[in-house]
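Q: Given only this backbone (287 positions), what sequence would you predict?
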């Protein structure tokens, strides 16, 4: 079957549920604004006495990372706060994912904020448990990564020039990305089965493994094609962002506006992934 066999239903499901992207964007925007004050206070208290040049050689993020690496004691009083923030972020994203999957897989194309939040609450614990069960699979991912990249590490360790080191580093990154997409596809499929067939977490994992045993490479290839499309569009967006003058007021506003548009695009892309994965699963599960 052609790509359109799965892409068209996924796109149609995404278009009819476009409000989901708007809801998630608004929730993320509100949460970001709420988190801005304590994080800004932390940075001011910790970095207020450090000098950052007006025209730095490195990007601001790298300058900030360099300061933290050189002065790691700065973060010690805030470890509890940062861990709490990370935990809350994880729980919030689990809730949003539950609502997103719930509405995307619902036969009713009508989407309201109440239904989205209701699905998030209904499927939250299943999604949270699916993350916990996924942890051993992450360990398997790391083991596979070390095994597959061992020859690259050996090659770079014996290099007498910088090129083998650069090439091996890029190849290691490519291996990690490919492994992550395969395991992420596995997690997505498990969640699709949990919701569409109302299965518990462990039976859904078993069903996903059985399905991937028969259809893994075609399914993964479809996933990689979608990922490549997202990368190309993202690269084009970053190219446009670099053309915007950052010093002037209108340039800053355009930068912020395009940044928010990109967030909505990424949520829409996530919807397309879910829709296409669901379409593929429905067509192939009976074979």
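A: Predicted residues:
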């Amino acid at each position: 079957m052609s790509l359109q066999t799965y892409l068209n239903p996924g796109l149609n499901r995404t278009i009819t549920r476009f409000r989901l992207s708007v809801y998630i964007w608004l929730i993320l925007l509100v949460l970001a604004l709420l988190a801005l004050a304590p994080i800004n206070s932390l940075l001011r208290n910790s970095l207020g006495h450090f000098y950052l040049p007006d025209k730095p050689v490195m990007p601001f993020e790298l300058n900030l990372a360099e300061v933290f690496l050189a002065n790691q004691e700065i973060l010690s009083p805030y470890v509890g706060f940062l861990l709490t923030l990370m935990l809350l972020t994880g729980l919030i994203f689990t809730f949003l994912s539950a609502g997103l999957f719930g509405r995307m897989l619902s036969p009713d194309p009508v989407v309201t904020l109440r239904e989205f939040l209701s699905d998030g609450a209904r499927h939250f614990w299943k999604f949270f448990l699916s993350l916990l069960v996924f942890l051993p699979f992450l360990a398997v991912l790391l083991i596979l990564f070390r095994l597959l990249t061992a020859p690259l590490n050996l090659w770079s360790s014996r290099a007498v020039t910088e090129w083998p080191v650069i090439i091996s580093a890029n190849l290691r990154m490519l291996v990690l990305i490919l492994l992550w997409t395969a395991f992420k596809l596995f997690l997505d499929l498990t969640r699709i089965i949990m919701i569409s067939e109302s299965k518990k977490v462990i039976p859904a994992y078993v069903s996903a493994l059985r399905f991937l045993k028969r259809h893994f490479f075609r399914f993964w290839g479809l996933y990689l094609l979608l990922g490549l499309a997202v990368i190309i569009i993202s690269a084009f967006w970053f190219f446009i962002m670099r053309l915007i003058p950052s010093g002037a007021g209108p340039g800053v506003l355009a930068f912020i506006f395009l940044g928010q548009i990109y967030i909505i695009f990424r949520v829409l892309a996530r919807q397309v992934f879910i829709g296409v994965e669901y379409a593929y699963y429905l067509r192939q599960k009976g074979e």
